[in-house]
C-alpha cells in the first residue's frame, strides 16, 4: 500500500510540474519571446493557461505535503492541508468556469456566427471575471456557509475527504459531475455539427477550424476520459481514493496530455495564409 501511495504521489507531482512548465512556455512564446502571434479571440484561452499554471502549482504543494506525510507523520502541520485543499478548490473552480465559458463561446461562434461577430467584442473580460467571481463566491458559501465547514482538521489528514465534511463532499461531487456533463454535452453538440459540415455537407471552408474550437473539442475529450470518469469512480467507490488517491493519476496525466496537444495547436504556424478564416 505504501509503494502504491508513493508512486501515485510522485507521478501526480511530476505530471503537475510538467503541465505548469508547458503552459508557462506557451505564454512565454506568446507574450515575451513573441514567437507565436497574439490573437485577441484567444483571450479566454490565455486566461485558462494562467489558471492552469496556478492550479497545478497548488496541486504540487499538496503533493509535496503528502510526501512529507509519507516520510513522517510527525512533520504534519495542523490545518495546513485545509488551506492547501482550499486553494486548489478555488483555482479548480476558476479553471473549470473558464473552460465552461470557452465552450459557450465556441458554440455561439458556430451556431450564430453573424450574431457572434457583431456582439462578441462588446462582452468585456471584466464581465467574464465577474461571473467567475460569482462561481467562486457560491462555492465558498457552500463550503463555509451552507455546509458549515470549520478550519479544524485532524493532524494526520492528508486528503480531500477528511478535510471537508460530508455535506460539502457530496456537493462537490454533484457539482463536478453536473459541470463536466454540461461542458461535455455542449462540446459533443459542437463536434457533431462540425462533423456534419466537414464530412457530410462537403463544405470546404468549414474544414478550417479555429484554434479556439480545436482546444474546446480537446477539452471535451479530456474532461470525459480523465476528469468525469474519475469523479464517478470517487462517487461510487470513495474508499479507493481515500486509501490510495489513485484517481489523481488519470486527472493529472490527462492534463499533461492535453497541455502537450494544446502546445502543438498554439505553436503551429501556417506558411501560407488561408483565403478564408473560420469563425469557429
TrEMBL record:
Q: Mention one GO biological process in which this protein takes part, according to its record.
A: G protein-coupled receptor signaling pathway
Q: Which residues cross the membrane?
A: 6-33, 45-68, 80-104, 125-146, 178-203, 215-237
Q: Does the keyword Cytoplasm apply?
A: no
Which GO cellular component terms are attached? non-motile cilium; periciliary membrane compartment
Annotated GO MF terms: G protein-coupled receptor activity
Which residues does the UniProt record annotate as the domain G-protein coupled receptors family 1 profile?
Answer: 22-280
Give UniProt keywords alphabetically: Membrane, Receptor, Transmembrane, Transmembrane helix
Family annotation (InterPro entries): 7TM_GPCR_serpentine_rcpt_Srbc, GPCR_Rhodpsn_7TM
Keyword NAD set for record: no
Q: Where in the cell is it found?
A: Membrane
Q: Which PANTHER family match?
A: G-PROTEIN COUPLED RECEPTORS FAMILY 1 PROFILE DOMAIN-CONTAINING PROTEIN-RELATED, SRBC-64-RELATED-RELATED
Which protein are we looking at? G-protein coupled receptors family 1 profile domain-containing protein
Organism in which the protein naturally occurs: Caenorhabditis elegans
- What is the primary gene name for this protein? srbc-57
